[in-house]
Automatic annotation (TrEMBL):
This protein's record includes keyword Secreted: no
Species of origin: Hymenobacter edaphi
Protein name from the UniProt record: Biosynthetic peptidoglycan transglycosylase
PANTHER family, alphabetized: BIOSYNTHETIC PEPTIDOGLYCAN TRANSGLYCOSYLASE (PTHR30400:SF0), MONOFUNCTIONAL BIOSYNTHETIC PEPTIDOGLYCAN TRANSGLYCOSYLASE (PTHR30400)
Pathway the protein contributes to: Cell wall biogenesis; peptidoglycan biosynthesis
Amino acid sequence: MAEFATQLRLARRVALQVLASLFLVSLAWVLVYRWVSPPATWLMLERRSHRPEANYGGLLPEDASRKIHYRFVTLREVSPQLPLALVAAEDQRFLMHHGFDTDAIIKAAKHNFGEKGGGIRGGSTISQQVAKNVFLWQGRSYVRKAAEAYFTVLIELLWGKERILEVYLNIAEMGDCVFGAEAAAQKHFGRSAKSLTPSQAALLAAVLPNPLKFQAGHPGPQARTKQQRVLRNMRRLGGTKFIGAILD
């Protein structure tokens, strides 16, 4: 009995040491990315290794290059229209919540469990999307969801809204092997992210739910419809003054 108690205390001590080590490593990782640009994300590595299984009606040919297009730019090197469009499309309560939008989560749950044939609706905030895309692997599980919540809390505490939005507009997938504002602007419109127009910014934000199926360079009726909705939301938020509140 005494030997069992000793082994239990040892196991508890080892477990606490492992947890403390994981916490310190994750804390250091988040702090490094507070100032250093992420060199890549898990999704970038996945796209680099193989093409998506679906070709979306020929939009993704099998012989397409797997070279990743990604160049990190600061928030001030991007037209304010784009961060405004991303917030208008993805997370209009971005400045109001602390990483989790309970209203959006409840609405998504009601939709997903209460409606048939309407498709799955997500309730993730921009902060949650950054946490899972920068720090976590692809896939769905309760463990991953818990880790996503953990990293969301960390970046909200250690980064702040400006850095979260800056990282988001750089690592978001905006086409096959195209990640971030600068790469997407060059790929789809032949211009820098700094010179994007409101209409172009809204189109990039409009395809984010599925940038492989709805391509900003070849928008269909659905993408155009959402583009107009994003433009209305951009005006409703107060235009670029809304983004000015983040930069100040």
